[in-house]
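Section handout 9: paired folding examples.
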Amino acid sequence: MRVVIAPDSFKGSLSAKEVGSTILKALTSEVEGVDAAVVPMADGGEGTLEALVDATEGMRIDVRVSGPLLRPIHTHYGVLGDEETAVVEVAQIAGLTQVPEAEKNPLNTSSYGVGEAILHALNQGYRKFMIALGGSAVNDGGVGLLQALGASFSDRSGRPVRPVGGSLAEIVEVSMDTLDPRLSECDLWVANDVSNPLCGERGCSAVFGPQKGATKSQVRQLDSGLRHVAGLLEACMGRSLQHEPGAGAAGGLGFALLLLGARMEKGARIVADIAGLERKISGADWVITGEGRTDEQTAYGKLPYFVAQMARRHGAKPLLLSGSIGEGAESLYETFVSLHSILRRPVSLQEAIENAESLLYETSRDIARLIGATGSENTEKRGNHV
């Protein structure tokens, strides 16, 4: 019997690699002779760098850049096993988890450090970039990133504008003439899991601003500022991109990267292709995937749904293990064999996070026992191909 374990991270508690290892430990403790493979997954957000670097036996490069609050931080970017492609994960540089709860306010956050990381990789000779956009704390339209890469944004007095979301309305002059010329030599590949435009009711400020700490009035201010600076940038570059799907990703970083000629693709597809997920699922009997929280949004292209669809195409049975299961998840029964929450008793969020590994292991053992009880019959029906 063959089982593929391809989870996303349980954000705030376990990485995708840790989730996969815990499920594997439970599976092998209960099912004798199981052929199991762990393929840590990500959708362009937190964990994408780790998944890609590990899958390709790449490396991490330490770097000191500006964090989301423009304070120096020590972080890293990755290089794939091809030794040619740099992976920059926004969540590692300008991530929401890096901002203390009391300081969450996208008027004050910046993507400047993301540009600094790209600049560092350029200086190391890299010209291929995969940029993972999920999990950001920013809403600056990519002004910080562009400024770090050499672009100029000035106010009425001709002074450089502080590259944060709250300063966008102050910009009156934009110059891309000083942009690092090496960017024209680069292949920019963006991993993204949202299709939102830059502005409006479905724009990044309205949809994602509140979870980054914005009040209703701040959402309006941010949206107005983005619309203003986007008009200046589009006039400067001679391109209209603010309405493109994904332009609103990562607080408008998607828009800035599109201006630089980046290609935008679904993060889950990128990770799956590089990790060879489809090849590994082919011939599997069961596929176990998971995420931190499952609800009606999971069916709109989130990573577990993507994995389950791939499993179905290859005749494997998909199971979902989730940190918690919310409203609307019942629609997923059309795709998954069953849905399982690791919460076996009432607990607080903090307790669930602190005990995520043991809770996951306990539930995984129950699932493993069910798989073991049905596995031999399932394998026979599939022609004993493993």
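Moving on to protein 2 of 2.
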Amino acid sequence: MEARFDLFSNELATRFAKRFANAGMVVHQSPLPKATQELVSLRASQINGCGWCIDMHTKEAAAGGESQVRLHLVAAWRESTVFTEAERAALALAEEGSRLADAHQGVSDETWAEVRRHYDDDQIAALVCLVALINAANRLAVIVHQRGGSYQSGMFAAALG
């Protein structure tokens, strides 16, 4: 399957991507741990079947020092022992926030309570915004069939530079 459309070579799409990336910088510069940001982005991308974003966030996380074991276990985080309780709360929020159509309640009260237990207000704001942003990014890439496999760490930032 070839990409339907190159978002990186279209002027309008590039202008949008720069603004989108600026919104993402608010999250990136927040007190939410970088490892958590990448794990959440990776998990939402797995749920949404976004090969481009899975490729990107796996490689960015590895470049940031994330272990291969943890990266391989993100999809099965409930059945693994390598994530902290705080990370597990963030991953649950990522899943429930990505699967809104699958759950009539959206994010459960139990998950929200765990998030509140582990994160302060600024971290929660960043986490909620991150889940919204990565789901939007997944949709952009999936709609145009942006395929994974060719991403190199830092490539997205360089493309928007």
